[in-house]
Amino acid sequence: MKKKILVVDDDVQLCQLASDILEEHGYQALTANNTDEGFKKLYEARPDLIILDVWLPSIGGLEFCRQVRLDEQTRHIPIIMLTVQDKEMDKVMGLEMGADDYMTKPFGQRELLARIKALFRRFDRAMPEAKLLRSGDLLIDMDMHVVKVKNRSVPMTPKEFDLLVTLIQNHRKAMNRQNLLTSVWGYDAPATTGTIDVHIRHLRRKLGSHGKKIKTILGFGYRFDG
């Protein structure tokens, strides 16, 4: 079955170009030119991935991303944010709202396909032998893609989930930021290592007392001491 990708951008030509590229490479493409239409197609088609522009009518791409992440039915869907002119603030805000990756417009066909494949690869690759990871009352169910603390579900974006799993699987091992980028993003992402810091901040906040187990190694990276 073809994977469905929803492109939400008010640039009609860009939507058509992205749709043509996606269809040519075996994906089913859906497009929307504003957030209202985007939500409609999101709940009708249940896409496997969303490509989302930062600047959109009516509520904007950042708010669209935030609402997707708040909904239990859609929070697991990977999101690639589109920014213009390589604006750092757009990227940071997108990551803060739960985006998994970003591209600067205009983008090339090879970059688009590489980023999409990298996101899908995480879900398609074989699961490790251990289906459950534990640290005290912190439980990670690899099959269900669920994180629980004291039997309470903790919402995670795909990137946050993979980063937490990577840290726990490398228990008490210091990992530098670049290695974490490569491990979690699945390829040599052009994202800055500051991307890792943003996601670590989110993990610490969401995990409560367990967040303190993620130790900062100054000038190097992070370690999970659970």
Secondary structure blueprint with pairings:
Layout: E1 4-8, H1 12-24, E2 28-32, H2 35-45, E3 49-53, H3 61-70, E4 79-84, H4 88-97, E5 101-105, H5 109-124, E6 132-135, E7 138-141, E8 146-149, E9 152-153, H6 158-169, E10 175-176, H7 177-185, H8 194-207, E11 214-217, E12 221-224
Parallel strand pairs: 1-2, 1-3, 3-4, 4-5
Antiparallel strand pairs: 6-7, 7-8, 8-9, 10-12, 11-12
Helix pairs in contact: 6-7, 6-8
What does this structure look like?
The strands form three sheets. Strands 2-1-3-4-5 form a five-stranded parallel sheet, sandwiched between helices. A four-stranded antiparallel sheet has the order 6-7-8-9, covered by helices on one side. It has a three-stranded antiparallel sheet with strand order 10-12-11. The protein has two domains: 4-124, Response regulator (Rossmann fold, 3-Layer(aba) Sandwich); 132-224, Arc Repressor Mutant, subunit A. The N and C termini lie far apart (40 Å). It has eight helices and twelve strands. The protein has helices at residues 12-24, 35-45, 61-70, 88-97, 109-124, 158-169, 177-185, 194-207, and strands at residues 4-8, 28-32, 49-53, 79-84, 101-105, 132-135, 138-141, 146-149, 152-153, 175-176, 214-217, 221-224. The model is unreliable at 126-130 (pLDDT under 50). A hairpin with a 3-residue loop joins strand 11 (214-217) and strand 12 (221-224). The protein has 226 residues and is of the alpha/beta class. It is globular and about 50 Å long.
